[in-house]
Specification:
By secondary structure, this protein is α/β, with parallel strands linked by helices. It is built from 14 helices and nine strands. The chain is about 45% helix and about 10% strand. Strand 4, helix 6 and strand 5 form a beta-alpha-beta unit. The model has no long low-confidence stretch (mean pLDDT about 95). The structure holds 5'-deoxyadenosine. The site of 5'-deoxyadenosine has 12 residues, from loops.
């Protein structure tokens, strides 16, 4: 089928088979104006011109894992490690609440210094102080029992990118103790437990093929997550992938638009990695159908230490305190930052 026709069909059916997905991954960039226009139209039907914000608190950069792409992998002896206390995390939330954030994302390496109960206590404390806020966890692969404990403590959402759906590709990015299957199982468990669950992948990670990306789109259609995070791979100088090329901004934008058309209601961030690789990258993400931005709420003194990849943005409009600057930027392309919790819903947007 002609690619423009395929895009129209995707816009009507919100589904793709693998051959169609491959065609869009390979040819989509040639039709990006059509893709981006339809993706924005779809996002506006679901969310109006609202952009949801999430305050990102990167509370530990210790990690027991050794992913080949990641700057905070356990083997990186040059990483300056830090942990935040419960009180420091609560202080970030207080500051964020004052700025208008109503979702806090606790993200960290897989750090067993914090017991399951420690994390549950942190979630309970945030929910007690800010009952009108959502808490999102992003701290890796755990047992069903642990996820259930944290859900009971009040956690609303969980981010766990599947990284790549293909087991052989997964094995080229991770040491043998990690598996694609376990990670995918965690995502199904999180959904079953009632979390709003987020999956996702890097674009242009080493050894990735167009077919791998098509498989990612097939996996996402099976899982049906409420959130999807994607961003370009960016090399980190202290990892085995230091000499690998970064992913393509254009392909990331094409995939954002395809994801928006596949999942009209999904919560889809314009990620920091996209903003790091391209000037105004997060605005480009919104123009390709993204509807979420996640500014950094971590304390100033640790912000430069959560370095998953080189040149990670952590100042300027990336910082939560610079929300006014971000509001102006977003307004300049006709959107507005809102303070709402921004939960997943399939209701169409209607002006309140
Ligand atoms: N480049 C881009 N994204 C990365 N992540 C980790 N390392 C990199 C990198 N070098 C992403 C992974 C992880 C998320 C928290 O950050 O997809 O799930």
């Amino acid at each position: 089928m002609d690619t423009a026709l395929l895009i129209e069909k995707l816009n009507n059916t919100h589904s793709l088979n693998k051959d169609e997905a491959l065609q869009l991954i390979k040819q989509g960039a040639q039709h990006k104006n059509l893709l981006f226009a339809l993706a924005q139209q779809t996002a506006q039907k679901s969310f109006g011109r609202q952009i949801f914000v999430r305050g990102l608190i990167e509370f530990t950069n210790y990690c027991k894992n050794d992913c080949y792409y990641c700057g905070i992998r356990r083997s990186n002896k040059n990483a300056a490690r830090y942990r935040l206390t419960q009180e420091e995390i609560l202080e970030c939330c207080r500051a964020g609440y004052g700025l208008g954030f109503r979702t806090f994302v606790l993200q960290g390496g897989e750090d067993y210094f914090y017991s399951d109960e420690d994390i549950a206590a942190i979630v309970r404390a945030i929910k007690a102080q800010h009952p009108d806020c959502a808490v999102t966890l992003s701290i890796g692969e755990r047992s069903r029992e642990t996820y259930a404990l944290w859900k009971k403590a009040g956690a609303d959402r969980y981010l766990l990118r599947h990284e790549t759906a293909d087991c052989a590709h997964y094995a080229k990015l991770h040491p043998a103790e990690l598996s694609a299957q376990n990670r995918q199982n965690c995502l199904y468990t999180l959904k079953e437990l009632g979390y709003q669950a987020g999956a996702g992948f890097m674009v242009g990670s080493p050894y990735q093929t167009a077919e791998n990306l098509a498989d990612d789109l097939m996996f996402l259609q099976k899982l049906r997550p409420q959130m999807i995070g994607i961003g370009p791979f960016i090399p980190h100088h202290d990892t085995p992938f230091k000499d690998e090329p970064a992913g393509s901004v254009e392909l990331t934008l094409v995939l954002l638009a395809v994801l928006r058309l596949l999942f009209p209601h999904v919560l889809l961030p314009a990620t920091t990695a996209l903003g790091t690789l391209a000037p105004g990258g997060r605005l480009l993400g919104i123009k390709a159908g993204a509807n979420v931005i996640m500014p950094n709420l971590s304390p100033q003194n640790v912000r430069g230490k959560y370095l998953l990849y080189d040149n990670k943005l952590h100042t300027g409009a990336e910082a939560a305190e610079a929300l006014n600057e971000l509001k102006r930027e977003v307004a300049s392309i006709g959107y507005r930052i809102v303070s709402a919790r921004g939960d997943y819903t399939e209701e169409p947007w209607t002006q309140g």
